[in-house]
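Ticket #651: bound-state structure for adenosine-5'-diphosphate.
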Amino acid sequence: MNEIPSTLVLIVDDDPGIRALLRRVLSQDGYLIAEAEDGEQALELCERLQPAIILLDIMLPRLDGIEVCRTLHAQGRTEDCAILMITSMSDEQSVDRAFELGAVDYIRKPLNLPVLRQRVRHLAVGKQAQEAVKKAHDELEERVVQRTTELKAANEVLQHEIAERQRAEESVRLYADVVRNMPISILVWQLAEGDDAPFFRLVAANPSAEKILGLPAAELIGKTISETLPAGLHSDLPAIAAEVIRTGQARDLGAVQYGGEDVHTFLVSVFALPDRCVGITAEDVTTRRRMENALYRSEQQLRRITDNMLDIICQTDVDGNIQFASPSCWDVLGYTPDSLRGQSIYARVHPDDLAMVIDAIQTTGRVEYRYQHADGHYLWLETLSNFLFEGDAVPQGIIFASREITKRKQAEWELKELNRLKTEFLTTAAHELRTPLTSIRGFSELLLAREWPPDRRQRYLHMIHEQANHLGVLIDDLLDISRLEAKRALTLALEPINVFDLVERILPPIVEAAPTHEVEIEGLQDCPPVLADPMRLGQVIQNLVANAVKYSPNGGKITIRGRIVDSCLEFSIQDRGIGMTAEQRAHLFEKFYRADGSNNAVQGTGLGLSISKLIVELHHGQIWAESEYGIGSTFFFTIPLAASQDQPSPH
Ligand code: ADP
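RESOLUTION: The complex was predicted; output attached.
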């Protein structure tokens, strides 16, 4: 009985004797035994111990066997435990009732122990079998669940793989479409072993490859590289392809050209493929190359032009920030093109011209203005500007062409100034000429009007003569000035001159006429000769000596000095006369200037010093004066020494 040791049998009987008997017998058979003496206890033990078999007496206190059955049946316990009813001979009805409520067998009292043992054993075996079946069922159930889960997971993986594959197939299809329709030639070659050397056979090519093969690829499958590709392309290819297969490294062959008159350019790459194959891509860039070359040539041409232009070419954005400046900005403005890039084109415009420049760029596109050179000084630029449009109505930038016009501006200014001076000069000259003319006309009218006593007549004639002389001097001076200023018709007859000798010749007539003056000469005797026109230099000295006498009416000492300064003779003449104020001195060398216009006692035209200045400057010298009002004046001029004159002609 050892094969069913763990079966728990609950014995329910109110008769202790029967319970003891059953316990003994069944214990011997190896069952585990629990006992209950009434119905309630039986239910309570059932609940707690869950026996496999219940031996249940029908007649029980508290709750009879039928009620116990009913309760267990209601609780669904009768499925799990086998109920063996113990009944008396006469109680057929109860047995039927018990069967209805889930009991599986019954045995009558008095108990036949061998039958009982047999029945219990039968139930125990059945129960065990039922449990084994249940266990197997549960295991099966569990395995089904587990398997279902596994299958579900496997299915998901499968679905995923299918979707992936579909995607891959789709992408392969698209890829194939791309390859087929690509404008680049794609050729696949397979390495084959030949008799003497390995060679390649064409295994696939896209339709674009016809461009390079000359025939549809389908007609050339199986042919070798040299049989299919143009000579200029195939020469090194087999060796390169073999190397690509050997190393697995793709090779970019760059631009390959072939063809006679009509040269084609291809960008060629070779890459390894499985099965001893190589892929070759060849992109026809002939047209692009031609366009690039043409563009490059025209850019170079333009660049050469802008690089060599004297004008400055600048391109800015719409706000005037410089994007490009031609190299001439260095020559003209002293800035390198790089240093200007990113800066505002207006940054160095003269502040006074800025508003005008901005306005002109927006309107007329032409402006003349001052611009600051890198060294700080301002020069004049003339700029033409234009907005740059790229397709639409919104300007993308501004292009400027600027030219330096400083010299032109200077010339314009000088011309204006010259015109002004000329007008002024003519007005003054006319005025100066009119004064003696008026005297001449007045006195001659008096003479013509009536008879005058001889002495009056003589005086008037004398006045007319004097004014005519003055007019003559004035006209001579004016002619001199216009000749000297024009530097025309006046050639200096340069020769080495000893200035001391020249002074000695000039002085006597003047000194004789000025008995109250005393002339002394210092240093001039020792000076070497100067290179000068003797007539013109004499004119200067005569003028200065005459002025020294004229403007020192009280006489006094006149000192003439000579000394050497920087390869020049510095000549000076000092008088102790009326002198000049600083204001008078400032105008000294202006035409028709006379410090004291009301001083009619001193004759003069106001042109002597202007003429002297022109003459000295034509000799490359300088002239100036120092003076103190009421004390006297000293006039200086310099003339280069003859010894230092291997050089300049005065013109
Ligand atoms: P002019 O003597 O005919 O008036 P200049 O051109 O020689 O004309 O001189 C211009 C003016 O300069 C004179 O009118 C006089 O006012 C002033 N000036 C020239 N020399 C002297 C001098 N030595 N001392 C003071 N004033 C002088």
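RESOLUTION NOTES: The domain at 127-289 is CATH 3.30.450.20 (Beta-Lactamase).
TICKET STATUS: resolved
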